[in-house]
Amino acid sequence: MSSLQTVKCVLFVCGVLLLAGCAMESEGPEAMAEAPAVPTGNPITGEGLPNPAPNVTANWGTLPEGRVWGSTAGIDIDLIDGHIWGYERCGAGNFGDGTPVNCDNNPVDPIFKFDRNTGEVLANFGGGIMVTPHGIHIDAENYVWVTDFVGNAEGTKGHQVHKFSPDGELLMSLGMAGQPGNGPNQFNQPSDVITAPDGSIFVADGHSAQSMRTNQEMEEGREAGYTSRIMKFSADGTFIKEWGQIGVRHGEFRTPHALVFDSPGRLRVADRGNHRNENLDQEGHLLAARYMYGRISGLFIKDEMVYAIDSESSPTSHPNWLNGVRIGPVDGDYITAFIPPFERESRVYQGTAGEGVVVDADGNVYAAEGPNSLAQAGGAFTKYSIAR
Q1: 85-128: pLDDT as tens digits
Q2: Are residues 114 and 239 in the same domain?
């Protein structure tokens, strides 16, 4: 390159930098301050991302004497006193039809309320009502909602959504006990439940589609009557509408595993099998989709930040993505923080983490440990405390 060309290049670069500086100056310091920070870590592995709750307390929570922890997938926060609600599956280490131990043949009380500071039991109830609890939700009036997503052999329990008072009185049951189906008053493996501010009830129904990986398998699943849908009911349990089926298009799902509302009232659906977070209005219209949170099992929102826990990424279902809790802004699709998983040899480099996640008033994070992570966690719940 000639010296003249070199000078021209230098002048051009300087001119570009000068114009950029002027443009930034014209926007003023307020505009510059509002620009979001660009994340620099790796959202797949979590490398380079901060861990906001690095202190791990495995096997958190007190279990009554003589009982053994079973797996779980559900955990929530008491909106009045900030303590922790969850359940364990009556000593069952896995789930599904044919499980040797479940809450039907071992009818101990599966639902717990724990002191968030000490882990002591504040309430314990629900025995003899369910088979395999799955989703749990504490509403604004402190009622406890639990989905029971598997039926018993006699066809008399399961595939229902139950509403309890805070002291354990059964107030309402939706669905036909022990009778799965795809009708408006039936469920087929309901995964989660949540209520809107107006009392409307939303149920994520269907747990089988996550394993359907080909178009043929999905078509066979639809023909067999399996579901992957969101159902909406009035506050008194009257069916209003439903949307969704097994599929990969927006508005379709492959196991809608968890539900949460954000502050404007948008419904977030953890579409586990499609590795995405679908954001919908309360009539089922798509508003946005998020893809950076992994193979999501649980969702929680605090201070306009999404906490999504991935318990299912594995070498065969979602290679390379580490399990763990990914954290990012509600209105963006990028990750700003990551809580890493437990080690698990069979997951190679991906680890294992829980299925449910909540965050308390202090920023401590709690995970509900499912079948994949129960052994590594040593109990049904793990507490990740903030750095002090």
Answers
A1: 999 999 998 665 655 899 999 999 999 999 999 999 999 999 99
A2: yes
Q: Does the residue 258 lie in any domain?
A: yes
Q: What is the pLDDT of residues 373-384, one digit of tens each?
A: 999 999 999 999
> How far apart are the C-alpha atoms of 194 and 190, rounded to whole Å?
12
Give the dihedral sign, CA 95/293/230/73.
positive
CB-CB contact of 136 with 110 (8 Å): no
The answer to whether residues 192 and 258 touch, using CB atoms and an 8 Å cutoff, is yes
Residues spanned by the domain of 20: 1-35
Torsion of CA 363, 369, 375, 378, to 10 degrees: 40
Instruction: Please answer whether residues 131 and 151 qualify as being in contact, where contact means their C-beta atoms are separated by less than 8 angstroms.
Output: yes
How many C-beta atoms surround the C-beta of residue 90 within 10 A? 25
What is the count of structural domains for the chain? 2
Contact at 8 Å (CB) between 11 and 18? no
On whether the CB atoms of residues 195 and 137 are closer than 8 A, the answer is yes
5, 100: one domain: no
And the tokens for 340?
């890493």
Q: What is the rounded distance in angstroms from the CA atom of residue 206 to the CA atom of residue 175? A: 13
First to last CA, the chain: 57
